[in-house]
């Protein structure tokens, strides 16, 4: 005759609860691993590539810009005008502080050194690239005729604001870093 077991038998609800715990734990672990696997390449894709990082700043050799002339450089896909202003142009920029521009701003606030004007070459009306024009003293936009003076301040609309100034620093006497 068989001896009755002394161990208590688990009820159906105890078994279901254990199974549920196991399944929840396993699913959470698999989900966490899956999320991590997806996140790594995604986050990696958000990091700038070397090319993009290289364009984040642009170093300009200032000796390649003769006094009195402006040159255009590309920074983060945008044109930047760097103008090596001579004494007459600096004087004209200062004189412009007191004449009426549409967006008044002293020249001294727009430059770090009077002989170097650095502005984004993007018209503040609708984004065309203005062209140097000695008749207006600075640039004229070919799209709708806005004009900017020797400090990049708007003197004739339809643009209503001055040419923007990008972040820049003088690394040394001969090197300008944009960005
Ligand atoms: S985009 Fe320059 S005047 Fe319109």
In which range does the helix fraction lie? 25-40%
Order of strands, main sheet, comes to: 5-6-7-8
Annotated CATH topology of the largest domain: Rieske Iron-sulfur Protein
Rg result: 33 Å
What portion of the residues fall into strands of 2 or more residues? Answer: 15-25%
CATH class bucket of the largest domain: Mainly Beta
* Oligomer class: single chain
Task: Identify low-pLDDT runs.
Answer: 1-8, 36-46
What is the CA-CA span between the terminal residues? 92 Å
Any idea what the CATH architecture of the largest domain is?
Answer: 3-layer Sandwich
**N-to-C SSE string, H for helix and E for strand:** HHEEEHHEEEEEEE
Major beta-sheet overview = 4 strands, antiparallel
CATH superfamily of the largest domain: Rieske [2Fe-2S] iron-sulphur domain
Helix run count: 4
Summed over residues and divided by their number, the pLDDT gives a mean of 82
Can you tell me the number of structural domains? 2
Principal-axes geometry comes out as elongated
Which small compounds were modeled alongside the protein? Answer: FE2/S2 (inorganic) cluster
The counted number of beta strands is 10
The computed structural class is alpha+beta
